[in-house]
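User: Predict the full complex structure for these chains.
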Amino acid sequence: MPRTILPGFRLAMGCTLVYVGVIVLLPLAALVWQAADLGWARFVTVVTGERALAAFRVTVLAALGATAINAVFGLALAWALVRYDFPGKRLLDALVDVPFALPTAVAGVALTALFAGNGWYGQLLEPFGIKVAYAPLGIVAAMTFTSLPFVVRSVQPVLEDLTADVEEAAETLGAGQARIFASVIFPSIFPAFLAGCSLAFARSLGEFGAVIFIAGNQPFRTEIAALLVFIRLEEYDYPAAAAIASVMLGAAFLMLLAVNAIQLWSLRWTRSAS
Amino acid sequence: MSAKGRSRVGDGPVFRPVLLTLVMLGAALLIVGPLAIIFVEAFKAGLGVYLSNLAAPDTVHAIGLTVLTALVAVPVNVAFGIAAAWAIAKFEFPGKGLLTALVELPFSISPIVAGVAYLFVYGAQGWFGPTLDALGIKVMFAYPAIVLASLFVTAPFVAREILPVMQQQGSDEEEAALSLGASGWRTLWSVTLPNVRWALLYGAVLTNARVMGEFGAVSVVSGSIRGVTNTLPLQIELLYQDYNAAGAFAAATVLAGIALLTIVAKLIVERMDPDRTG
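Assistant: Here is the predicted structure of the two-chain assembly.
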């Protein structure tokens, strides 16, 4: 263990622990406590109720849809930003951060205005019978927007580190472009890509602000889990709110573990490759 | 390296323009469109209407409350971020990985879950609610709860920005300063913080943007009392539900402006600090 003469360990550590305890852990413990208070049988009844199950299904399906879109679009965007030079590249790179910087409520009203029947996009889509605002697709659109940067920002640095020589070697061996991408490039960016997708999915599962404006919020059809928690609170049904929120908390922990496992794997991957 | 002019995978005469066009189109529709419509809708009825929408008493109050929240939450989380980064970057101790994970935990938690969790601590049915109530201290559905929820959602921002920089720089300069007789605080102030200043600044800017824009967690704990506990994002929702789209978009331009400034700050920080990654 390397020794250091730096002071302030106890103070810094003490402040950090107390702060994390009071600001982060205490509320989460209170939530779990409240849910546990229900007892297992009632907890299960609440979280497997028809409306709760429908809300979980809507949330997971929409998050999967949004993640699929961002997997493809994010990879293409990262590819363009790393591999190509074109006018407006720096601007495009900066624009990728907009969904993180823009408050979710602002994104929600903006997307709703765009996709409403008389909006810029809605006008073009509704003649084809495609309804986005106040429909399940609206939830997908909102989640796609708010989780857009994850895949790009995860893949970008790894793609940047890829050198040309492996590709050249594959080329001299007679591999075509598609073959080189599939068997040389994609495997090296895959862990980062998967981590980005998981982060996007996790974010989408918990998204609230952007979704509630555009979703229409009909129970069983366009009601997400986060909104159901909010509705149960407004009905003063605190145990139900606690139960559904703890399921969301559990899902967040599982996603966190998954992302960490992927990142560890990716670290080992890049180390063994170099 | 790609400047050598040698063709690499994906540089084909058809693939490249097609991919670039699709990416540009996607970015225009998904990112530029939402930004543009905020300003178009806000200014649709002219500058005069826009300004009078912004000057509506409840909106002005919401802006004030939002600024007041950031004034407390940002410095507190900057201090926390420095303390956490100091402990994690400069010392070895068991459980370091766990502590880092705990500091980053709020990133992974839905804002709604955070809001509900706070309700169960400080609300009437929560752990401390009845005691606080008996003492006449109002936390829930008031300013303190708004600040607490904002602290939760932005707790990791500063630490996350400065930690990698501190870890990369090591402790040599600090040790030199200490051996020359500088006190610990002096070393922190004149050696460590200047070394991480750009990351610190960007962390603070990000914290500020998120505090001012937080919706889910604050909407649970604030009670959204019109003209009392409505922050700016909540005010946007309220105006929108009142079918006052022009008012909602006028308020939204303020937050969109802060978001754009945040991105400009990132560009500046990256330019000032070229070896910064990510």
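The CA atoms of residues 101 and 146 of chain A lie 10 Å apart.
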